[in-house]
């Protein structure tokens, strides 16, 4: 009985001695975890800010490009071949786009810097909005119809003297810069980060998904 009592006292003394150390260790571990969480949040907020700035600059460049293209005779009213030749020449100097194309007022493809064939874009949001507003528009990320790659569509209508839309020009902005931006982020081992469009489709992912 005495032995049991002494053992209980001894255990109590050990617990009393160790408890502050355990508490301090747990507190420091909690602090470290909170610090890591805050740093991760700050890094992601900076990444979002950088992405917004990059997208704004990209859209501004696309608007300037489309305004210039819309003033060229080959684009405004040229034959499909003359229109294509001009788009090809321009696109060769601008690798930031997956395609440049022109449709008629019904969305039928007239010419493109890349790709041919029978395509109609009358159902696309960028075409509808360009037609409705009569101004430069940028819509949500989507998968391009000709090449099946993610793009950010920017479009502008070509109107005649009466203000009637005759053609619509699309600049399909390549979104690979998003993947490059994500690639600059130092992610913890075993984690990934993805950018989704409004429909949940993956636009960019880091690290890339294994093929």
Description of the structure:
With 211 residues, the chain is an alpha+beta fold. 48% of the residues lie in helices and 21% in strands. The protein is built from five helices and eight strands. The chain has helices at residues 2-69, 73-77, 80-91, 125-133, 176-183; strands spanning 97-104, 109-112, 137-138, 142-143, 150-159, 165-174, 193-196, 202-206. Strands 1, 2, 3, 4, 5 and 6 form a six-stranded antiparallel β-sheet that branches. A two-stranded antiparallel ribbon has the order 7-8. Strand 4 (142-143) and strand 5 form a beta hairpin. It is elongated. The N and C termini lie far apart (70 Å). The model has no long low-confidence stretch (mean pLDDT 78).
How do you describe this structure in short?
With about 210 residues, this protein is of the alpha+beta class. Helices cover about 50% and strands about 20% of the residues.
Topology readout:
Layout: H1 2-69, H2 73-77, H3 80-91, E1 97-104, E2 109-112, H4 125-133, E3 137-138, E4 142-143, E5 150-159, E6 165-174, H5 176-183, E7 193-196, E8 202-206
Antiparallel strand pairs: 1-2, 1-6, 3-5, 4-5, 5-6, 7-8
DSSP summary, beta strand count: 8
- Low-confidence runs: none
| Class from secondary-structure proportions | alpha+beta
- Intertermini distance: 70 Å
Q: What profile does the largest beta sheet have?
A: 6 strands, antiparallel
Q: What percent of the residues sit in helical stretches (DSSP H or I)?
A: 40-55%
Mean pLDDT: 78
Oligomer: single chain
Secondary-structure element series = HHHEEHEEEEHEE
Portion of residues in beta strands equals 15-25%
Number of helices: 5
As a whole number of angstroms, the C-alpha radius of gyration is: 29 Å
Give the overall shape, derived from the CA principal axes: elongated
């Amino acid at each position: 009985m005495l032995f049991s009592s002494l053992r209980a006292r001894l255990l109590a003394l050990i617990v009393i001695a160790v408890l502050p150390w355990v508490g301090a260790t747990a507190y420091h571990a909690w602090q470290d975890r909170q610090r890591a969480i805050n740093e991760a949040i700050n890094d992601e907020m900076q990444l979002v800010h950088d992405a917004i700035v990059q997208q704004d600059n990209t859209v501004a460049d696309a608007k300037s490009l489309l305004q210039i293209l819309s003033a060229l005779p080959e684009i405004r009213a040229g034959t499909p071949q003359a229109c294509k030749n001009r788009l090809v020449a321009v696109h060769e100097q601008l690798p930031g786009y997956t395609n440049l194309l022109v449709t008629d007022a019904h969305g039928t493809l007239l010419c493109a810097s890349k790709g041919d064939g029978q395509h109609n874009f009358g159902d696309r949001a960028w075409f509808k909005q360009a037609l409705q507003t009569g101004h430069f528009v940028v819509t949500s990320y989507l998968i391009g119809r000709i090449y099946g790659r993610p793009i950010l569509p920017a479009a502008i209508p070509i109107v005649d003297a009466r203000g009637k839309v005759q053609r619509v020009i699309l600049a399909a902005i390549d979104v690979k810069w998003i993947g490059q931006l994500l690639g600059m982020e130092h992610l913890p081992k075993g984690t990934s980060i993805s950018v989704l469009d409004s429909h949940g489709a993956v636009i960019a992912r880091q690290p890339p998904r294994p093929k």
